[in-house]
């Protein structure tokens, strides 16, 4: 599975760090929404869903967490621990996040506004969708 980690240029200097995010530049889509996850309690697993059409860029702006990505055929795990690294999460990708450090702030840029209808929150249902998407991407069920 090809996972894209985008290296974000640091503009900071001796005073401190600074990273700029620009749509259709280092963020490869139009940004419709930004949200962030923080204060995640110890032992909690978040995510546990896929999106039918949403593309997102996920950045651990502070702290660390582990990320699982699963396209229905392959599953990969990686650590997000670098504010200069953005994980591009395409549609039809099951995601789980766990082992959040106490200070972890996960910032997410999304190409669509929030829509609960875009979520697939059941893994078996995701596998059904994923099989259709992997064999005929243009004929996803509604
Ligand atoms: C994702 C991972 C990385 C809203 O009202 N608006 C929003 O924009 C979002 C993202 C969520 N919500 C509501 C929906 C739920 O009642 O906030 C509550 C928590 O959302 P959820 O359980 O989906 O959160 P996570 O941490 O499991 O997942 C989130 C995103 O939902 C998801 O798209 O990819 O972060």
Compact description:
It holds the Pfam family FdtA. It comes from Paludibacterium paludis. This protein has one domain: Jelly Rolls (Sandwich), CATH 2.60.120.
Please characterize this protein's 3D structure:
- This protein has 142 residues and is mainly beta.
- It has one domain: Jelly Rolls (Sandwich), CATH 2.60.120.10.
- It is built from one helix and ten strands, in the order E-E-E-E-E-E-E-E-E-E-H.
- The strands form two sheets. A five-stranded antiparallel β-sheet has the order 1-7-4-9-2, with no helix packed on it. Strands 6-5-8-3-10 form a five-stranded antiparallel β-sheet.
- The longest helix has 13 residues, at 123-135.
- The chain is globular.
- The protein starts with a strand and ends in a 7-residue tail after the last helix.
- Bound molecules: dTDP-4-keto-6-deoxyglucose.
- DTDP-4-keto-6-deoxyglucose (T46) is lined by residues 33, 35, 37, 46-47, 56, 58, 95, 108, 114.
- DTDP-4-keto-6-deoxyglucose is lined by residues 33, 35, 37, 46-47, 56, 58, 95, 108, 114.
- This is dTDP-6-deoxy-3,4-keto-hexulose isomerase.
- GO terms for molecular function: isomerase activity.
- Keywords: Isomerase.
- Residues 1-130 form the Sugar 3,4-ketoisomerase QdtA cupin domain.
- It comes from Paludibacterium paludis.
Features:
142 residues; mainly beta; Jelly Rolls; 5-stranded antiparallel β-sheet; 9% helix; 37% strand; globular; binds dTDP-4-keto-6-deoxyglucose; dTDP-6-deoxy-3,4-keto-hexulose isomerase; isomerase
Say what the CATH topology is.
Jelly Rolls
The major beta sheet can be summarized as: 5 strands, antiparallel
Shape: globular
| Helix content, binned percent | under 10%
Strand content: 35-45%
Second CATH tier, the architecture: Sandwich
- Structural class of the helices, strands and pairings? mainly beta
Q: Bound compounds, please?
A: dTDP-4-keto-6-deoxyglucose
Low-confidence stretches: none
What integer is the average pLDDT?
94
InterPro entries: QdtA_cupin_dom (IPR008894), RmlC-like_jellyroll (IPR014710), RmlC_Cupin_sf (IPR011051)
Protein name: dTDP-6-deoxy-3,4-keto-hexulose isomerase
Keywords: Isomerase
Domain Sugar 3,4-ketoisomerase QdtA cupin: 1-130
């Amino acid at each position: 599975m090809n996972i894209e980690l985008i290296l974000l240029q640091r503009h900071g200097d001796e005073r401190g760090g600074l990273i700029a995010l620009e749509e259709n530049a280092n963020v490869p889509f139009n940004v419709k929404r930004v949200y962030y996850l923080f204060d995640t309690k110890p032992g909690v697993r978040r995510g546990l869903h896929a999106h039918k059409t949403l593309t997102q860029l996920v950045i651990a702006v502070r702290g660390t967490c582990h990320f699982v990505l699963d396209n229905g055929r392959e599953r990969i795990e990686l650590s997000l621990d670098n504010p200069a690294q953005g994980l591009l999460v395409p549609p039809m990708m099951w995601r789980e996040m766990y082992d959040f450090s106490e200070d972890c702030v996960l910032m997410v840029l999304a190409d669509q506004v929030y829509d609960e209808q875009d979520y697939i929150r059941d893994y078996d249902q995701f596998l059904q969708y994923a099989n259709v998407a992997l064999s005929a991407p243009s004929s996803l069920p509604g």
